[in-house]
Amino acid sequence: MSHAYASDLDRNPANYAALTPLSLIARTAEIWPAHPSVVHGARRYTWAETYARCRRLASALARRGIGPGDTVAVMLANTPEMVEVHFGVPMAGAVLNTLNTRLDAEALAFMLGHGEAKVLLTDTEFAPLVAAALAKVAVRPYVVDIADMEGPGGELLGDVDYETFIAEGDPEFAWQPPADEWQAIALNYTSGTTGNPKGVVYHHRGAYLNALSNIIDWGMPRHSVYLWTLPMFHCNGWCFPWTMAANAGTNVCLRRVEAKAMLDAIREHRVTHYCGAPIVHSMLINAPDAWRQGIGHQVSGLVAAAAPPAAMIEGMERIGFDITHVYGLTETYGPASVCAKHAAWSVLDIGSRTERNGRQGVRYTVEEGMTVMDPETMTPVPRDGETMGEIMFRGNITMKGYLKNPKATAEAFAGGWFHSGDLAVLQPDGYVKIKDRSKDVIISGGENISSIEVEDVLYRHPAVLAVAVVAQPDAKWGETPRAFVELKPGSSVTSDELNAHCRAHLASYKVPKGYEFCELPKTSTGKIQKFVLRERARSSSAIE
User: Fold this and answer.
1) What sign has the CA pseudo-torsion 69, 75, 76, 80?
2) Separation of alpha carbons 209 and 416, rounded Å
3) pLDDT at 244 over 90
4) Residue 37 backbone class (left: φ over 0; alpha: ψ -120 to 50; beta: rest)
5) Helix (H), strand (E) counts: the chain
6) Beta strand spans in 89-193 (E)
7) Is the four-CA dihedral 88, 117, 277, 388 of positive or negative sign?
8) How many CA atoms lie within 13 A of 68 on its CB side?
9) What is the rounded CA–CA span in Å between residue 36 and residue 271?
10) What does the alpha-carbon distance between residue 45 and residue 35 come to, in Å, rounded to a whole number?
């Protein structure tokens, strides 16, 4: 039925614009052109300079025919170029695919082929790995080399180097916002729990909103100084390249996450914020006191991948760093929930504070829903802290879906919610607490490891009859894979031999950190009872 508010109040260019994080850098470059944007070794850029370099990149890509629907893949460390591609690639209308530098050649080749990358920007440090991946692809992309002076160097594989490439571009390139904010902005691959990795597609709207939510939910002051300890290939650095443009802050790049380098950067640049898996924060806690001398300002950290253990929270308090726990997945643009702190918690004892601050928490400001439900009935579990269910999300920072995989997309969104695969309880205050994982994923140092992928490799060894891989707690990495192996009658093999076998087929971080040779517990139908092995390996303590 028509009413007054539905008439003569149409959308028009004066009252509506598609949401895109590209508008954030344009605004900051206009208002704070001389403010430092990126610091990397001896290199320094302002926001005006970074904006111009992004537009050059977009222009150079457009001149090569790259536009909407095309994929530009990048194999980069945390460098100024990695910041620039987050704006320059979508300014050309293309989709950015940041590749995990820790993967093996086979996985990278699959991603390049599946994403149909037209262009690949790659740091020379990764030349051997990239060369091996390119040898496996059916269609070779146009390759642009980046020779970072702060890096170790390496072979040039490409058709042109990055600086020459962007020099072809126009610093005044008249980029256009997306015609529709639903347009894809980024492609990120999961680890793949079964078979090949899945390509998670982000849209401009979600990237824009999560960029702002990071500021809101972390309480970031304007002109924050952000240290890149988190890889920008992880969920587009949890959207923080776009966040820092909105914040008009300063990106301090770091190629390698090492305690001394981190602390030196924090001191020199007066870093205020950084993110990472528990291991990143633990490195700072366990560093010699002398390395922290001279750091007298407030430093805030976000921790994800696994709940922060009590020792880490206590350690952060001891060195004067403020820590906040966030939770999310590749499918939710990185963090989609935060353990929002209450002032009343500050007077509690350390144990009680740790219990409250170690939870996965409540939905991000821009996420419409986060709850724990019975995945069969799709009804919320009671707030009793005991009844298990699956964590579910819905809203604007949930992916568009999986690229070229409608079946997996439909399954992920069954019942109108995104199914995380993580099992949890709802506590009386409405905060979510993870209890187990249902997807056979092990999260080690922030990297997702498919236990099924590791099992598949071990099954290829001629001595192995049956195998099950579960998580085991690890003081350094949070959790690591542990393999329970049942050998064929009359066969023998050592842990070292299995290690060598795994290293030949897996990225190093996926290789089990322990083996146990035994008869595997099975049901009457022969199904391996992983829950028994998880109890034996104390898997749940890794996420408590």
Assistant:
1) negative
2) 20
3) yes
4) alpha
5) 17, 27
6) 95-98, 117-123, 142-146, 160-161, 184-189
7) positive
8) 12
9) 13
10) 9
Using the structure block, give the residue that is written with the tokens 């591609």: 85
Alpha-carbon separation of residue 334 from 3, 74, 95, 328, 331 (angstroms)? 41, 19, 18, 5, 7
Higher pLDDT, 488 or 267: 267
Chain segment 360-382, per-residue pLDDT in tens: 999 999 999 999 999 989 999 99
Count the Cβ atoms, other than its own, within 10 Å of residue 320.
Answer: 12
When pLDDT is cut at 50, 70 and 90, the band that residue 238 belongs to is very high
Q: Which domains does the chain have, with CATH numbers?
A: 299-439 (3.40.50.12780), 441-542 (3.30.300.30)
pTM score of the predicted model: 0.85
Type of residue found at 100: N
What is the distance between the alpha carbons of residues 135 and 145, in angstroms, rounded to a whole number?
A: 17
pLDDT computed for residue 501 by the predictor? 95
In SS3 terms, 370-397 reads as: EEEEECCCCEECCCCCCCCEEEEEEECC
Q: How many residues does the chain have?
A: 544
CA 372, 376, 382, 385 torsion-angle sign: negative
b/e per residue, 330-357, with b = 16+ CB within 10 A? bbbbbbbbbbebeeeeeeeeeeebbbbb
449 phi and psi, to 5 degrees? -120, 125
Residue the block writes with tokens 């008249």: 174
DSSP letter for each residue of 412-472: HTGGGSEEEEEEEEE-TTS-EEEEEESS-EEEETTEEEEHHHHHHHHHTSTTEEEEEEEEE
Question: Is the per-residue pLDDT at 309 higher than 80?
Answer: no
Angle at 299 between CA 365 and CA 346, to 5 degrees: 65
Distance separating the N- and C-terminal Cα atoms of the chain: 53
Which amino acid, 406?
A: P
